[in-house]
Design brief:
By secondary structure, the chain is an alpha/beta fold. The chain has 11 helices and 8 strands.
Length: about 290
């Protein structure tokens, strides 16, 4: 078991009415912690690299993606690589062109900050190019709260509009606005579970939940039962990582070796990932054939 594709992981989740957990990577420590946590739980996982993370690394996506690809290849559980929330047109073109060579097998084309017509047109064009490269394509309808600018809290995705959007764009997965919000540091968001069920019946592709760090685990489980098939988690890892580093440095004011305090943060990420995987995802069957 090792590196696999997003399509295989999502298809497996659909087949068992479950979900695959997708965790955002900012540093190598994030990626190592995520894989370790998934191995501890014995579950498949997706590593996600967002546009914001790429900007943090000076616009260079190849080094971290390559590292994630090698981690996935050596993992004891199936691991896939996904590109998350890509809005910049030039970056999108570059990622679509080079993703496959660096191990990424899917991309989220995020045009939800545009009006519906532009979202459809831009997403459809990007989806065609991505499909030509063999990538699984996710898009978003109904901006999910918690980000500056166009991402307005309280927005909900309309099921009829979602069905039309999927048909018009040809995307493979749809991120929907159902009550979660990005960058939440407390798990007290309330999801519209009846809307999730309605959306799952309305569209022909798997549903994706963003902003899952702000949702109680019990509600996430209910969302999966209602039809969510990919669950994105980012902020919870940053809270865990930063908490570990802060605790270590608070306890040792003379510490100056980053390996010691970064290891504490990485371990916290692994524990957070393992706990979520154990609570929300079925273990990988020994006969799993998705890895390569």
């Amino acid at each position: 078991m090792s590196r696999t594709t997003t399509r295989e992981l999502v298809d497996d989740a659909v087949s068992r009415n479950g979900a695959v957990l997708a965790f955002n990577v900012i540093t190598l420590e994030h990626a190592e912690g995520i894989v370790t946590g998934a191995e501890t739980a014995g579950t498949p996982v997706l590593l996600q690299l967002s546009e914001n993370a790429i900007r943090y690394h000076g616009g260079r996506f190849a080094p971290l993606l390559a590292a994630c690809d090698r981690l996935a290849d050596e993992s004891a559980v199936p691991v896939g690589l996904h590109l998350d929330h890509i809005q910049d047109a030039q970056l999108s073109e570059e990622l679509i062109s080079f993703a496959g060579a660096l191990g990424a097998t899917s991309i989220m084309v995020d045009e939800a900050h545009h009006d519906y017509a532009q979202n459809v047109a831009r997403t459809a064009a990007s989806a065609r190019r991505a499909h030509e490269r063999g990538l699984w394509v996710e898009a978003e309808l109904g901006a999910i709260g918690g980000k500056d600018g166009a991402h307005a809290p309280g927005v909900r995705t309309d099921p009829g509009e979602a069905a039309s959007f999927v048909e018009a764009t040809g995307v493979d997965g749809l991120a929907v606005a159902v009550g979660s919000s990005h960058a939440m540091t407390t798990a007290d968001a309330r999801l519209d579970l009846p809307l999730i069920s309605e959306l799952a019946r309305a569209v022909t592709v798997p549903l994706v939940l963003h902003g899952s760090s702000g949702v109680p685990v019990e509600t996430l489980a209910a969302a999966i039962s209602s039809g969510i098939r990919k669950v994105n988690v980012g902020t919870a890892l940053n809270v865990a990582f930063t908490g570990g580093v802060r605790s270590f440095l608070d306890s040792d004011s003379a510490a100056n070796d980053p390996r010691r305090y970064l290891a504490r943060g990485r371990d916290n990420i692994a524990e957070t990932v393992a706990a979520l995987c154990e609570q929300l995802v079925a273990p990988v069957p020994t006969t799993y054939e998705g890895a390569r």
